[in-house]
Amino acid sequence: EPEVTQTPSHQVTQMGQEVILRCVPISNHLYFYWYRQILGQKVEFLVSFYNNEISEKSEIFDDQFSVERPDGSNFTLKIRSTKLEDSAMYFCASARVASSTDTQYFGPGTRLTVL
Amino acid sequence: GNSVTQMEGPVTLSEEAFLTINCTYTATGYPSLFWYVQYPGEGLQLLLKATKADDKGSNKGFEATYRKETTSFHLEKGSVQVSDSAVYFCALSSGSARQLTFGSGTQLTVLP
Predict the structure, then answer these.
(1) Which residues of chain A have pLDDT under 50?
(2) What is the DSSP code string of chain A?
């Protein structure tokens, strides 16, 4: 069964460093998402991406964040200058169509630890 | 805005016990409702969903009915197993806001 994959599974970085989190969505899916879950808190929406541009973004997704689909298969989340409060589990998701009724399929997540 | 309120955990049950995890929501328009499950060390997996009022989603013995009148989508299972131990998330997606809004998650532990 096709699945969303994410790398790395765990990333440790120093405050102020740039990190890139990578995702490979399901191949025939067109809609892509990033969510994050700070330890002990809710899963929060960050951004959605469709047709090579950001579709929607939350208040969390400020100028230090960016997303890209560089090669038609990977979908990346870049954090330019990490802060301690960016420590969280980051989940990538993809969906076949742009509909609120469609299922979003999640990857296993990348645990980001900022020291 | 959209919000999901989920039963506080953790919940601990004996094997073969009946499970209910409450979920209520606030949303604009007509949301689709989802239950996702996260097993230890894994990502979020869709457990079941319902896209309109009175629909019942079901999977692996779990059920949830979309109740518009009470804005609820409670998860139930008649007889839980040790392998059901996981964190369960209620979520909704509504209209043009295709992103999922999640509840806080409920940790379920089933003891043999």
Answers:
(1) none
(2) ----EEE-SEEEE-TT--EEEEEE--TT--EEEEEEE-TTS-EEEEEEEETTEEEEE-TT--TTEEEE--SSS-EEEEESS--GGG-EEEEEEEESSS-TTSPPEE---EEEEE-
Q: Report chain A residues whose CB lies below 8 A from the CB of B102.
A: 42-44
Contacts of B93 in chain A (CB under 8 A): 100-101, 104
- What's the pLDDT tens digit per position in A22-45? 999 999 899 999 999 998 888 999
Count of all residues that appear for chain A in the document: 115
Q: Which residues of A touch B43 (CB under 8 A)?
A: 4, 6, 91, 106-109
For the segment B22-36, the average pLDDT, to the nearest whole number, is: 92
Comparing CB atoms, the residue among A31, A55, A100 nearest residue B95 is A100
- Which of A81, A78, A93, A96 has the alpha carbon at shortest distance from A37? A93
